Amino acid sequence: MGYLNEIKEAIINGKHKEIEGMVSQLIKEGVDLKQLIDEGMIAAMDVVGEKFANSEIFVPEMLVSAVTMQKGLDLIKPLLKGDETEPKGTIVMCTVKGDIHDIGKNLVIMMLEGAGFKIIDLGVDLSVDQLIERVKEIQPEILGLSALLTTSMPQMKKVIDALDDQGLRKTIKVMVGGAPVDRKFADAIGADGYGADAAEAVKLARRFV
Ligand code: B12
Protein backbone atom coordinates (compact mmCIF):
# COMPACT_ATOMS: atom_id res chain seq x y z
CA MET A 1 0.00 0.00 0.00
CA GLY A 2 1.75 3.07 -1.31
CA TYR A 3 -0.04 5.61 0.86
CA LEU A 4 1.06 3.93 4.10
CA ASN A 5 4.65 4.28 2.99
CA GLU A 6 4.11 7.91 2.03
CA ILE A 7 2.72 8.72 5.47
CA LYS A 8 5.51 6.78 7.14
CA GLU A 9 8.17 8.64 5.15
CA ALA A 10 6.48 12.01 5.82
CA ILE A 11 6.63 11.39 9.59
CA ILE A 12 10.17 10.03 9.53
CA ASN A 13 11.29 13.09 7.57
CA GLY A 14 9.26 15.50 9.72
CA LYS A 15 7.09 16.91 6.93
CA HIS A 16 4.95 18.80 9.42
CA LYS A 17 3.66 21.25 6.83
CA GLU A 18 2.51 18.55 4.42
CA ILE A 19 1.09 15.97 6.81
CA GLU A 20 -2.33 17.55 7.35
CA GLY A 21 -3.06 17.73 3.63
CA MET A 22 -1.95 14.14 3.17
CA VAL A 23 -3.98 12.75 6.07
CA SER A 24 -7.08 14.80 5.15
CA GLN A 25 -6.94 13.43 1.64
CA LEU A 26 -6.68 9.84 2.90
CA ILE A 27 -9.59 10.40 5.29
CA LYS A 28 -11.65 11.67 2.31
CA GLU A 29 -10.72 8.54 0.39
CA GLY A 30 -12.01 6.46 3.28
CA VAL A 31 -8.84 4.55 4.15
CA ASP A 32 -8.70 2.14 7.09
CA LEU A 33 -7.83 4.43 10.00
CA LYS A 34 -6.46 1.67 12.22
CA GLN A 35 -4.08 0.61 9.47
CA LEU A 36 -3.11 4.21 8.85
CA ILE A 37 -2.23 4.67 12.53
CA ASP A 38 -0.52 1.31 13.07
CA GLU A 39 1.27 0.68 9.79
CA GLY A 40 1.83 4.29 8.73
CA MET A 41 2.25 6.41 11.83
CA ILE A 42 3.43 4.11 14.64
CA ALA A 43 5.71 2.24 12.24
CA ALA A 44 7.31 5.60 11.41
CA MET A 45 8.05 6.28 15.07
CA ASP A 46 9.78 2.93 15.39
CA VAL A 47 12.10 3.91 12.54
CA VAL A 48 12.67 7.34 14.12
CA GLY A 49 13.58 5.61 17.40
CA GLU A 50 16.07 3.33 15.62
CA LYS A 51 17.65 6.24 13.78
CA PHE A 52 18.01 8.08 17.07
CA ALA A 53 19.54 5.06 18.77
CA ASN A 54 22.05 4.82 15.90
CA SER A 55 22.89 8.54 16.14
CA GLU A 56 21.64 9.11 12.59
CA ILE A 57 19.28 11.77 13.94
CA PHE A 58 19.12 13.74 17.21
CA VAL A 59 16.49 15.14 19.58
CA PRO A 60 15.38 18.05 17.32
CA GLU A 61 14.62 15.70 14.41
CA MET A 62 12.86 13.28 16.74
CA LEU A 63 10.75 16.18 18.00
CA VAL A 64 9.76 17.34 14.51
CA SER A 65 8.69 13.78 13.68
CA ALA A 66 6.63 13.72 16.89
CA VAL A 67 4.93 17.02 16.01
CA THR A 68 4.22 15.71 12.51
CA MET A 69 2.62 12.55 13.88
CA GLN A 70 0.54 14.45 16.43
CA LYS A 71 -0.80 16.78 13.70
CA GLY A 72 -1.92 13.73 11.74
CA LEU A 73 -3.50 12.11 14.80
CA ASP A 74 -5.39 15.31 15.65
CA LEU A 75 -7.23 15.03 12.32
CA ILE A 76 -8.16 11.39 12.98
CA LYS A 77 -9.27 11.98 16.57
CA PRO A 78 -12.78 13.36 15.88
CA LEU A 79 -13.51 10.38 13.64
CA LEU A 80 -12.95 7.88 16.43
CA LYS A 81 -15.50 9.38 18.77
CA GLY A 82 -18.13 6.86 19.78
CA ASP A 83 -21.83 7.68 19.93
CA GLU A 84 -22.42 6.56 23.52
CA THR A 85 -24.05 9.25 25.61
CA GLU A 86 -23.53 7.69 29.05
CA PRO A 87 -19.83 7.38 29.85
CA LYS A 88 -18.80 3.82 30.69
CA GLY A 89 -16.51 4.94 33.52
CA THR A 90 -13.89 7.52 34.35
CA ILE A 91 -10.22 7.00 33.58
CA VAL A 92 -7.38 9.23 34.67
CA MET A 93 -4.37 9.06 32.35
CA CYS A 94 -0.88 10.52 32.54
CA THR A 95 2.75 10.04 31.69
CA VAL A 96 4.81 9.58 34.84
CA LYS A 97 7.37 11.91 36.42
CA GLY A 98 10.55 12.56 34.43
CA ASP A 99 8.93 11.58 31.16
CA ILE A 100 7.44 13.89 28.53
CA HIS A 101 6.57 11.33 25.84
CA ASP A 102 2.85 11.66 25.19
CA ILE A 103 2.00 10.41 21.71
CA GLY A 104 1.27 6.88 22.95
CA LYS A 105 -0.76 8.20 25.88
CA ASN A 106 -2.73 10.47 23.55
CA LEU A 107 -3.43 7.59 21.21
CA VAL A 108 -4.64 5.41 24.09
CA ILE A 109 -6.90 8.30 25.17
CA MET A 110 -8.32 8.64 21.64
CA MET A 111 -9.26 4.97 21.56
CA LEU A 112 -10.69 4.93 25.09
CA GLU A 113 -12.80 7.99 24.33
CA GLY A 114 -13.96 6.33 21.13
CA ALA A 115 -15.01 3.34 23.23
CA GLY A 116 -17.17 5.57 25.42
CA PHE A 117 -15.00 6.19 28.49
CA LYS A 118 -14.67 9.59 30.15
CA ILE A 119 -10.98 10.48 30.21
CA ILE A 120 -9.25 13.01 32.38
CA ASP A 121 -5.81 13.65 30.91
CA LEU A 122 -3.37 14.91 33.52
CA GLY A 123 -0.61 15.37 30.97
CA VAL A 124 3.05 14.46 31.29
CA ASP A 125 5.84 14.52 33.89
CA LEU A 126 3.36 14.19 36.75
CA SER A 127 4.73 13.77 40.26
CA VAL A 128 3.37 11.07 42.53
CA ASP A 129 2.01 13.69 44.96
CA GLN A 130 0.22 15.65 42.23
CA LEU A 131 -1.26 12.47 40.87
CA ILE A 132 -2.50 11.19 44.24
CA GLU A 133 -4.11 14.56 44.95
CA ARG A 134 -5.99 14.49 41.63
CA VAL A 135 -7.02 10.86 42.05
CA LYS A 136 -8.55 11.69 45.45
CA GLU A 137 -10.44 14.57 43.86
CA ILE A 138 -11.63 12.77 40.71
CA GLN A 139 -12.12 9.25 42.14
CA PRO A 140 -11.76 7.46 38.80
CA GLU A 141 -12.44 3.74 38.36
CA ILE A 142 -9.20 3.34 36.41
CA LEU A 143 -5.77 4.95 36.38
CA GLY A 144 -3.65 4.59 33.23
CA LEU A 145 0.08 5.24 33.46
CA SER A 146 2.41 5.63 30.51
CA ALA A 147 6.24 5.55 30.50
CA LEU A 148 8.62 5.51 27.54
CA LEU A 149 11.92 5.64 29.38
CA THR A 150 13.59 2.88 31.34
CA THR A 151 14.52 5.63 33.81
CA SER A 152 10.89 6.71 34.36
CA MET A 153 9.37 3.23 34.61
CA PRO A 154 10.15 2.93 38.36
CA GLN A 155 7.80 5.88 38.92
CA MET A 156 4.93 3.54 38.15
CA LYS A 157 5.75 1.47 41.20
CA LYS A 158 5.99 4.63 43.28
CA VAL A 159 2.48 5.60 42.20
CA ILE A 160 1.08 2.17 43.06
CA ASP A 161 2.82 2.15 46.45
CA ALA A 162 1.50 5.64 47.19
CA LEU A 163 -2.06 4.57 46.30
CA ASP A 164 -1.60 1.71 48.73
CA ASP A 165 -0.29 4.01 51.50
CA GLN A 166 -3.27 6.31 51.03
CA GLY A 167 -5.74 3.41 51.25
CA LEU A 168 -6.83 4.01 47.64
CA ARG A 169 -5.40 0.92 45.99
CA LYS A 170 -8.52 -1.25 46.36
CA THR A 171 -10.86 1.31 44.84
CA ILE A 172 -8.93 1.86 41.61
CA LYS A 173 -7.62 -0.38 38.84
CA VAL A 174 -4.19 0.54 37.56
CA MET A 175 -3.15 -0.20 33.98
CA VAL A 176 0.30 0.49 32.65
CA GLY A 177 1.91 0.72 29.22
CA GLY A 178 4.57 2.31 27.04
CA ALA A 179 7.28 0.84 24.83
CA PRO A 180 9.70 -0.40 27.56
CA VAL A 181 6.93 -1.74 29.82
CA ASP A 182 5.90 -5.40 29.65
CA ARG A 183 3.59 -7.79 31.45
CA LYS A 184 6.34 -9.08 33.70
CA PHE A 185 7.18 -5.57 34.89
CA ALA A 186 3.47 -4.79 35.36
CA ASP A 187 3.05 -7.89 37.52
CA ALA A 188 6.20 -7.14 39.50
CA ILE A 189 5.03 -3.65 40.48
CA GLY A 190 1.51 -4.85 41.34
CA ALA A 191 -0.41 -3.24 38.46
CA ASP A 192 -3.81 -4.71 37.58
CA GLY A 193 -3.09 -4.84 33.87
CA TYR A 194 -0.64 -4.21 31.05
CA GLY A 195 -1.57 -3.18 27.53
CA ALA A 196 0.84 -3.37 24.59
CA ASP A 197 -1.20 -0.93 22.50
CA ALA A 198 -4.29 1.27 22.48
CA ALA A 199 -6.60 -1.59 21.50
CA GLU A 200 -5.41 -3.61 24.50
CA ALA A 201 -5.95 -0.57 26.71
CA VAL A 202 -9.60 -0.57 25.62
CA LYS A 203 -9.96 -4.30 26.33
CA LEU A 204 -8.48 -3.85 29.79
CA ALA A 205 -10.70 -0.90 30.59
CA ARG A 206 -13.81 -2.83 29.52
CA ARG A 207 -12.78 -5.68 31.80
CA PHE A 208 -12.20 -3.34 34.74
CA VAL A 209 -15.57 -1.56 34.80
C1 B12 B 1 9.01 10.80 19.70
C2 B12 B 1 10.07 10.48 20.73
C3 B12 B 1 10.55 11.53 21.53
C4 B12 B 1 9.91 12.92 21.53
C5 B12 B 1 8.59 12.86 22.34
C6 B12 B 1 7.55 13.86 21.89
C7 B12 B 1 6.18 13.58 22.46
N1 B12 B 1 5.36 14.61 22.47
O1 B12 B 1 5.85 12.49 22.87
C8 B12 B 1 11.03 13.78 22.20
C9 B12 B 1 11.91 14.38 21.12
C10 B12 B 1 10.54 14.90 23.12
C11 B12 B 1 11.81 12.71 22.95
C12 B12 B 1 12.68 12.98 24.00
C13 B12 B 1 13.51 12.04 24.61
N2 B12 B 1 13.62 10.73 24.25
CO1 B12 B 1 12.40 9.83 23.02
N3 B12 B 1 11.53 8.84 21.70
C14 B12 B 1 10.59 9.16 20.85
C15 B12 B 1 10.27 7.93 19.96
C16 B12 B 1 10.99 8.10 18.61
C17 B12 B 1 8.82 7.64 19.63
C18 B12 B 1 7.88 7.51 20.84
C19 B12 B 1 6.46 7.43 20.32
O2 B12 B 1 5.77 8.42 20.27
N4 B12 B 1 6.05 6.24 19.82
C20 B12 B 1 4.76 6.03 19.19
C21 B12 B 1 3.70 5.69 20.25
C22 B12 B 1 2.34 5.53 19.58
O3 B12 B 1 4.08 4.48 20.87
P1 B12 B 1 4.13 4.28 22.45
O4 B12 B 1 4.45 5.55 23.11
O5 B12 B 1 4.97 3.10 22.74
O6 B12 B 1 2.63 3.95 22.84
C23 B12 B 1 1.93 2.78 22.45
C24 B12 B 1 2.08 1.62 23.45
O7 B12 B 1 3.31 1.61 24.13
C25 B12 B 1 0.88 1.72 24.32
N5 B12 B 1 0.87 2.59 25.50
C26 B12 B 1 1.53 3.74 25.75
N6 B12 B 1 1.19 4.25 26.93
C27 B12 B 1 0.28 3.42 27.47
C28 B12 B 1 -0.41 3.49 28.68
C29 B12 B 1 -1.30 2.48 29.01
C30 B12 B 1 -2.04 2.54 30.29
C31 B12 B 1 -1.50 1.38 28.12
C32 B12 B 1 -2.42 0.30 28.49
C33 B12 B 1 -0.82 1.33 26.90
C34 B12 B 1 0.06 2.35 26.59
O8 B12 B 1 -0.12 2.18 23.44
C35 B12 B 1 0.44 3.13 22.51
C36 B12 B 1 -0.30 2.99 21.20
O9 B12 B 1 -0.12 1.77 20.57
C37 B12 B 1 10.87 6.76 20.83
C38 B12 B 1 11.25 5.50 20.07
C39 B12 B 1 10.21 4.42 20.17
N7 B12 B 1 10.16 3.57 19.19
O10 B12 B 1 9.46 4.33 21.12
C40 B12 B 1 12.03 7.49 21.53
C41 B12 B 1 12.58 6.97 22.86
C42 B12 B 1 11.46 6.53 23.77
N8 B12 B 1 13.23 8.17 23.41
C43 B12 B 1 14.34 7.91 24.02
C44 B12 B 1 15.17 8.87 24.65
C45 B12 B 1 16.51 8.37 25.16
C46 B12 B 1 14.75 10.21 24.81
C47 B12 B 1 15.53 11.33 25.54
C48 B12 B 1 16.18 10.93 26.88
C49 B12 B 1 16.56 11.88 24.54
C50 B12 B 1 17.49 12.96 25.08
N9 B12 B 1 18.78 12.64 25.06
O11 B12 B 1 17.09 14.01 25.50
C51 B12 B 1 14.43 12.39 25.74
C52 B12 B 1 13.70 12.25 27.08
C53 B12 B 1 12.74 13.35 27.36
C54 B12 B 1 11.90 13.06 28.59
N10 B12 B 1 12.33 13.49 29.76
O12 B12 B 1 10.89 12.38 28.48
C55 B12 B 1 14.67 6.41 23.99
C56 B12 B 1 14.42 5.74 25.34
C57 B12 B 1 15.51 4.75 25.69
C58 B12 B 1 15.27 4.10 27.01
N11 B12 B 1 15.67 2.86 27.06
O13 B12 B 1 14.79 4.63 27.96
C59 B12 B 1 13.78 5.91 22.79
C60 B12 B 1 13.32 4.45 22.91
C61 B12 B 1 14.61 6.12 21.48
C62 B12 B 1 15.78 5.17 21.38
N12 B12 B 1 15.65 4.11 20.63
O14 B12 B 1 16.82 5.40 21.96
N13 B12 B 1 11.56 11.46 22.45
Summarize the structure in words.
This protein is an alpha/beta fold. The chain folds into 2 domains: 2-80, Methionine synthase domain (Methyltransferase, Methionine Synthase (B12-binding Domains), Chain A, domain 1), CATH 1.10.1240.10; 90-208, 3-Layer(aba) Sandwich (Rossmann fold). It is 56% helix and 11% strand. It has helices spanning 2-12, 19-29, 33-53, 59-80, 103-114, 128-138, 154-165, 183-188, 198-208, and strands at 90-95, 118-121, 142-146, 173-177, 193-194. It has a 5-stranded parallel sheet. The radius of gyration is 17 Å and the shape is globular. It starts with a helix and ends with a helix. The mean pLDDT is 96. The structure holds cobalamin (B12). Cobalamin binds next to helix 3, helix 4, helix 5, strand 3 and strand 4. Cobalamin binds at residues 42, 45-46, 48-49, 52-53, 59, 62-63, 66, 98-105, 107-108, 144-146, 148-150, 175-180, 195, 197-198, 201.
Keywords:
209 residues, alpha/beta, Rossmann fold, binds cobalamin
CATH topology name of the largest domain: Rossmann fold
Distance between the termini: 38 Å
Poorly predicted runs: none
Rounded radius of gyration (Å): 17 Å
List the ligand species: cobalamin
Number of strands: 5
Task: Determine the CATH superfamily of the largest domain.
Answer: Cobalamin-binding domain
What's the CATH architecture name of the largest domain? 3-Layer(aba) Sandwich
Number of domains: 2
Q: Based on Cα principal axes, name the global outline.
A: globular
Quick gist of this model?
With 209 residues, this protein is α/β, with parallel strands linked by helices. The protein has helices spanning 2-12, 19-29, 33-53, 59-80, 103-114, 128-138, 154-165, 183-188, 198-208, and strands spanning 90-95, 118-121, 142-146, 173-177, 193-194. It is built from 9 helices and 5 strands.
